[in-house]
Write a structure and sequence with these properties.
mainly alpha
């Protein structure tokens, strides 16, 4: 059951990240073509590609963390006995959960709430910045 939920979340994250990456690529290509070949550029493509980069980066980080493919220095842990390795795995998982809850969820909520209250919008697209921060 838990494996099914995890797999569904992976599919969902990839279904979001892949089109976002393609749109980001299109924005960057359009920006380059417009600036260097047409002599003018659009202001929203730079901003949109920046926002998409933030979203894709965080979605990709969540996906890789779920696959246990994140960067890790395992030399000391690999030399430890099996029981100690298991303890390290539990400790690391606990630290990741605490970090995610405190910094990402709670801090992200405060950031989104403050930006909604202040009404901050992006300069080119006039998009509420809180929507960009909502990915956190």
């Amino acid at each position: 059951m838990l494996h099914r939920i995890h797999r569904s979340l992976d599919v969902f994250v990839l279904a979001l990240a892949v089109p976002m990456t393609l749109v980001m690529l299109g924005c960057v290509v359009w920006q380059v073509v417009g600036r260097y070949f047409l002599g003018s550029s659009t202001s929203f493509t730079d901003e949109l590609s920046r926002f998409l980069f933030i979203w894709v980066s965080l979605l990709g980080a969540a996906y890789v963390l779920g696959k246990r493919g994140h960067i890790a220095i395992t030399g000391l842990i690999d030399m430890a006995p099996r029981g100690v390795r298991r303890g390290f795995d539990i400790l690391i998982a606990g630290l990741v959960i605490v970090f995610a809850l405190v910094v990402l969820v709670w801090g992200g909520w405060l950031l989104v709430e403050r930006n909604l209250r202040l009404g901050q919008v992006s300069p080119a697209m006039l998009l509420p910045v809180a929507y960009v921060y909502a990915i956190i």
